[in-house]
């Protein structure tokens, strides 16, 4: 993390800039790449007013999460009787964790495992498919290309949730409901991922490099696997992370597709606990468990995003130019 | 562009135009390339067809049938659509979604844009931390975000009520029928301001700086630079965030569905069209009508996305 270049450089320098022969500023988005590189620190002083205003807005984004972290250390009684941002009378984080991971025979651990399985399988698959397709659309001129791209672009506009009901019916006819496949298969399709990869590949992979490799006798697949895929890495990480988030956070699809609680991802499981907790008397003991579970379930993704931010930000900066 | 570009960059600028050497290359390498192109495209297309086109077609097919107590499924043409267009529940949901489009989306995107512009000036101390901190809510599942805000909204013990009471005021009921739409808007904004900000910020970082310098020499202040240079330069990224927000608003489901368990009297089963379609399909077991609602919803999204595109980008086209 500490070796990451300063902000001014991070997002601005697509890999193209360094990996490409000088002078080949093929700005696909019409962006003139010659002048894009910015001085790391512009010769300006900090603006204290702007700084203060922005740091104040952080309260809105971070306080709910701080609140969640604090609540996960409280007992049920303290959650409702003490101030939200202060610790309770008892520091019960350990007890809450034990309760979280032992409640209903430790089903929460299953849910987290399911979430990881669904999210990793879907996002890796989606990233591979999107990378291949986006790269082919960007780098090969072939009949049907614009039709394929138009089809995929149009698909970005179709609400995925509108697809969920017919998908459910088809899957139930194919006996796929209540299996992990019901979550993984629909999540493999990422039209936005294809779009992003197409834009990214057009800019990150230089045609003359491909030509050179061909002249050297490399086959198309070898070029793709050994040369292009490396140049595409930031784009791939970006697509992977965004696919990961959308599956990790998916609630609608598993809610429809899964009935067996042991197959639930954490989102559906937590929502069910929450409904049990609010559902009525006696079940109140669940509140601390729900809150601790919520806190635990968001940690892996937040950590993944922070660690990989250097990659996805440079991947996004190229993708969004074309928008 | 420089002569270097025109010599080497022709194929970049117009990927569909053949590079100068294409005819020669086609002869020697055309077939393996064609093969590779399709071999790389087809895996996605197969999954795409199976998970996208087939369900879509199936939904269209289903929507033209009506199930009857006697006689089972009967072909009914566009009757389900006619029913939806006369269904107050459908329109009420669409109305709430429209409020999202006209109230929440502009607020969210303007805040995201202002933050992105502020960070892009390079004048904010700790801007890297600020950027990531604002983005973090995007990584929080909608379920967790809604759960959390549901507690924060709580009338007696919620954090917001605690804070308002501590200064001696009476806290409002944020989960009342009048306020719950606004409360939902807040949750959605909290989740997605950071995402939109990052997209816009990334686009801003790719704008060439020499234009700013020229403008500054001409005496333009930071606001003038932002308004006249930066915002026009990232129009396509702004369009992207608008379209995604339009699609997202129409798809609203998680937040109302979860708030329903906290505030069942404030949120009906038809709070959003998507929630309504879900309840029609899985509570009322009327998949035909649900398919028609979903289809109609998709149609509205396409139309509005298209209108947004036409309105904002006459000059530009998506790739």
Q: How would you describe this protein?
A:
The complex is a heterodimer of chains A (323) and B (319). Chain A is mainly α and 323 residues long. Chain A has two domains: 45-93, no CATH class; 103-322, MetI-like fold (Orthogonal Bundle), CATH 1.10.3720. Helix content of chain A is 70%, strand content 0%. Chain A has helices at residues 7-10, 16-19, 48-71, 76-81, 93-139, 145-156, 160-173, 181-187, 191-204, 207-215, 220-231, 233-248, 252-257, 266-279, 286-307, 309-322. In chain A, helix 5 crosses helix 12 (233-248) and helix 9 crosses helix 16 (309-322). The longest helix of chain A has 47 residues, at 93-139. Residues 1-37, 39-43 and 319-323 of chain A have low confidence and may be disordered. In chain B, strands 1-2 form a two-stranded antiparallel ribbon. Chain B has a single domain (90-317), classed as MetI-like (MetI-like fold), CATH 1.10.3720.10. Chain B is mainly α and 319 residues long. Helices cover 71% and strands 3% of the residues of chain B. The radius of gyration of chain B is 25 Å and the shape is globular. The chains are: A mainly alpha (323), B mainly alpha (319). Chains A and B meet through helix 1, helix 3, helix 4, helix 5 and helix 6 of A and helix 1, helix 2, helix 3, helix 5 and helix 6 of B.
């Amino acid at each position: 993390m500490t070796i990451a270049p300063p902000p001014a450089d991070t997002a601005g320098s697509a890999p193209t800039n360094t990996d490409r022969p000088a002078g080949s500023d093929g700005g696909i988005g019409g962006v003139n790449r010659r002048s894009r590189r910015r001085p790391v620190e512009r010769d300006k002083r900090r603006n204290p007013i702007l700084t203060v205003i922005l740091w104040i807005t952080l309260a809105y984004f971070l306080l709910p999460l701080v609140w969640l972290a604090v609540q996960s250390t409280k007992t049920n009684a303290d959650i409702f009787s003490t101030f939200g941002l202060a610790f309770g009378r008892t520091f019960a984080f350990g007890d809450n964790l034990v309760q979280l991971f032992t409640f209903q025979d430790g089903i929460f651990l299953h849910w987290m495992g399911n979430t990881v399985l669904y999210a990793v399988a879907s996002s890796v698959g989606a990233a591979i498919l999107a990378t291949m397709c986006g790269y082919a659309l960007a780098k090969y001129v072939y009949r049907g290309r614009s039709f394929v791209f138009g089809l995929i672009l149009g698909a970005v506009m179709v609400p995925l949730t509108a697809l969920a009901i017919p998908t459910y019916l088809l899957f139930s006819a194919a006996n796929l409901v209540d299996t992990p496949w019901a979550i993984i298969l629909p999540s493999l399709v990422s039209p936005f991922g294809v779009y992003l990869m197409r834009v990214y590949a057009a800019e990150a992979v230089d045609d003359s490099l491909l030509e050179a490799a061909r002249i050297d006798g490399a086959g198309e697949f070898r070029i793709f696997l050994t040369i292009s895929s490396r140049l595409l890495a930031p784009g791939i990480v970006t697509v992977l992370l965004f696919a990961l988030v959308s599956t990790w956070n998916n609630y609608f699809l598993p809610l429809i597709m899964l009935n067996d609680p042991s197959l639930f991802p954490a989102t559906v499981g937590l929502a069910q606990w929450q409904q049990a907790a609010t559902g009525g008397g006696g079940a109140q003991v669940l509140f601390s468990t729900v809150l601790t579970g919520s806190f635990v379930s968001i940690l892996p993704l937040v950590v993944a995003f922070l660690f990989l931010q250097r990659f996805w930000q440079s991947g996004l900066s190229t993708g969004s130019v074309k928008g | 562009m420089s002569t270097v570009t025109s010599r080497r960059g022709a194929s970049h600028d117009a990927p569909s135009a053949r590079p100068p050497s294409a005819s020669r290359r086609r002869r020697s390498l055309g077939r393996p390339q064609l093969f590779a192109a399709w071999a790389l495209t087809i895996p996605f297309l197969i999954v795409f067809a199976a998970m996208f086109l087939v369900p879509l077609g199936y939904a269209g097919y289903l929507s033209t049938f009506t199930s009857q107590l006697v006689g089972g499924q009967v072909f009914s043409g566009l009757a389900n659509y006619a029913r939806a267009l006369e269904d107050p529940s459908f329109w009420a949901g669409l109305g709430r979604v429209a409020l999202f489009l006209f109230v929440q989306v502009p607020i969210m995107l303007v805040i995201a844009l202002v933050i992105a512009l502020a960070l892009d000036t390079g004048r904010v101390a700790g801007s890297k931390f600020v950027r990531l901190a604002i983005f973090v809510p995007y990584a929080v599942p909608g379920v967790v975000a809604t759960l959390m805000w549901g507690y924060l909204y709580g009338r007696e013990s919620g954090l917001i009520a605690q804070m308002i009471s501590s200064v001696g005021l009476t806290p409002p009921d944020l989960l009342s029928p009048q306020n719950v739409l606004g409360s939902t808007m807040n949750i959605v904004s909290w989740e997605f301001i950071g995402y939109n900000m990052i997209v816009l910020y990334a686009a801003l970082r790719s704008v060439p700086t020499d234009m700013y310098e020229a403008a500054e020499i001409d005496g333009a202040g930071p606001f003038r630079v932002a308004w006249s240079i930066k915002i026009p330069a990232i129009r396509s990224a702004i369009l992207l965030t608008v379209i995604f927000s339009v699609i997202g608003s129409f798809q609203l489901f998680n937040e109302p569905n979860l708030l329903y368990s906290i505030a069942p009297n404030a949120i009906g089963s038809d709070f959003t069209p998507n929630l309504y379609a879900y309840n029609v399909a899985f509570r009322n077991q009327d998949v035909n009508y649900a398919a028609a609602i979903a289809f109609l919803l998709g149609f509205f999204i396409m139309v509005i996305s298209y209108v947004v595109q036409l309105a904002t980008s006459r000059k530009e086209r998506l790739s």
